[in-house]
Amino acid sequence: MADKFDPYRESLVLETETVWPDDLPEMNEKEKARIAEALHQDPASCAHLEYERLHTGFCRRITVTADDIARVSANA
After folding, report:
1. Cα–Cα distance measured from residue 46 to residue 42, given in angstroms and rounded to the nearest whole number
2. Whole-prediction pTM value?
């Protein structure tokens, strides 16, 4: 289940992870890295965001959606 953007948790994010579902179009690794970076720079606008508790903070996990790709591509 996706979480809502949380400024408190964001201040404690130590790791990031990007999940690419199989139903998304194929992209090369360079394009995936560009999109992942853009999504992690603006996590509040991501459709599917999760925070995983770590011993010393949180891991932000973003599952990429087609809407996220379209938004990032439109802003490029």
Report:
1. 7
2. 0.91
